[in-house]
């Protein structure tokens, strides 16, 4: 006879809601849970131990939780303002995948902080700027804080790279600098739809978080990175999707656009405006052709009609997607976790603070990948 797990049915309800499988999202439950969960929640039936382990894995809670007598009274999701809604409210109860990714980001941040403490590394305070609505001052602050000149930014293009139009080198450089110079952890999602979220940020006084959608184009992630950075500099936790823009979103877009493609410099490089020149400018600054078009329009270099016409012409170039979960497994893990986070976990392992099992748990990389990570972090095998 198969042994049943005598759980508290109320905890089965709590765990499902905790994971975000409510309302229409209940339909996303796998069949092996969907056909039983109401019986388990009503107390008409108990799951087998194997079924409980499957539910525990899907709901992202330990099996021990299902045996608690009283439901936990906490909500560990940060309050995220969705500025793209006409009446901004706290961003609650979105897809289970997004909820999972947000919690994963917060968990990795806690690990990161703990390991920095164990390594006796300084934990910087994040500075919120006082000039809340001065676009030029925010742009100047970011440029000085990252200590990257515009000329250095332009040097990042890799002319012989077949993926040049995607600007991976720009994205990686910006992520590295923002973490190093400003103490922000930058992660990417795996499995969240672009229609739901392009980027979000979670404000903390120590080590805030930027979470980019791994399904977005490389250029899209570059722009979202600086959009979310602006929210953090204003002391905000926010989520950005594709609805109508509010005043705050317009401001963050303006900062990102001016930082990546400064108006004065763009004017100096704008002589003949053609499809080829727009593509060249996108490579020069490391942004999409759409961003270049928007900056040309905002700086009065092209008319509204010309802007609309060229948007259609360049549409195919600006809609190419990067593959969120394809390609090399090791590179994808680094992409989702961030190299900076993995580097701190590696350092903790090398110093004996954590063992190989903990290394694998914290990074989702088996021990055999340690030499690859050392080569990635240090430039050569250790």
Task: Tell me about this structure.
The protein is mostly helical and 382 residues long. It has 19 helices and four strands. It has helices at residues 9-19, 31-34, 37-42, 49-59, 96-118, 135-146, 150-154, 168-182, 218-233, 247-260, 263-268, 275-285, 289-298, 304-313, 315-318, 329-337, 339-350, 356-363, 370-378, and strands at 185-188, 199-202, 209-212, 238-240. The protein has a four-stranded mixed β-sheet with strand order 1-3-2-4, sandwiched between helices. Helix 9 (218-233) packs across helix 10 and helix 17 (339-350) runs antiparallel to helix 18 (356-363). 34% of the residues are buried. Mean pLDDT is 88; it is low at 85-92 and 320-325.
Structural category: mainly alpha
Distance between the termini: 53 Å
| Helix content percent band | 40-55%
- The number of distinct β-strands equals 4
Strand content: under 5%
Instruction: List SSEs in N-to-C order.
Output: HHHHHHHHEEEHEHHHHHHHHHH
What kind of sheet is the major sheet?
A: 4 strands, mixed
What integer value in Å does the Rg equal? 23 Å
- Tell me, briefly, the overall form: globular
Mean pLDDT: 88
Low-confidence parts = 85-92, 320-325
Give the helix tally.
19
Strand arrangement in the largest pleated sheet: 1-3-2-4
Quick description:
Helices cover 51% and strands 4% of the residues. With 382 residues, it is mainly α.
Features:
382 residues, four-stranded mixed β-sheet, mainly alpha
């Amino acid at each position: 006879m198969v042994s049943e797990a005598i759980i508290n049915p109320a905890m089965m309800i709590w765990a499902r809601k905790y994971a975000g499988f409510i309302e229409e999202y209940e339909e996303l439950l796998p069949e092996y849970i969907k056909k039983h969960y109401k019986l388990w929640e009503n107390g008409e039936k108990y799951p087998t131990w194997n079924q409980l382990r499957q539910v525990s894995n899907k709901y992202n809670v330990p099996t021990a939780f299902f045996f608690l007598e009283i439901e936990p009274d906490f909500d560990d999701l940060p309050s995220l303002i969705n500025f793209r809604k006409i009446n901004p409210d706290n961003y609650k109860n979105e897809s289970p995948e997004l909820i999972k990714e947000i919690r994963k980001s917060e968990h990795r941040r806690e690990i990161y902080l703990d390991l920095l403490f164990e390594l006796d590394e300084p934990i910087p305070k994040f500075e919120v700027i006082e000039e809340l609505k001065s676009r030029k001052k925010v742009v100047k602050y970011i440029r000085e804080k990252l200590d990257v000149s515009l000329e250095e930014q332009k040097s990042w293009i890799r002319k012989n790279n077949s993926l040049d139009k995607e600007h991976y080198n720009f994205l990686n450089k910006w992520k590295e600098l923002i973490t190093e110079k400003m103490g922000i952890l930058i992660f990417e999602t795996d499995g969240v739809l672009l229609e739901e979220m392009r980027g979000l940020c979670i404000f903390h006084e120590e080590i805030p978080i930027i979470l980019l959608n791994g399904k977005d184009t490389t250029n899209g992630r570059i722009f979202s990175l600086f959009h979310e950075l602006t929210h953090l500099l204003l002391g905000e936790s926010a989520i950005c999707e594709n609805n109508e823009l509010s005043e705050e979103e317009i401001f963050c877009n303006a900062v990102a656009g001016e930082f990546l493609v400064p108006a004065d410099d763009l004017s100096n490089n704008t002589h003949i405006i053609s499809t080829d020149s727009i593509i060249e400018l996108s490579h020069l600054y490391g942004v999409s052709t759409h961003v270049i078009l928007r900056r040309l329009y905002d700086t009065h270099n092209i008319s509204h009609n010309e802007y609309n016409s060229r948007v259609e012409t360049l549409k195919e170039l600006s809609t190419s997607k990067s593959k969120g979960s394809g390609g090399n497994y090791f590179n994808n893990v680094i992409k989702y976790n961030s190299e900076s986070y993995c580097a701190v976990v590696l350092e903790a392992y090398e110093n004996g603070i954590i063992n190989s099992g903990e290394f694998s748990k914290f990074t989702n990389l088996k021990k055999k990948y340690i030499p690859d990570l050392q080569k990635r972090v240090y430039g050569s095998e250790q």
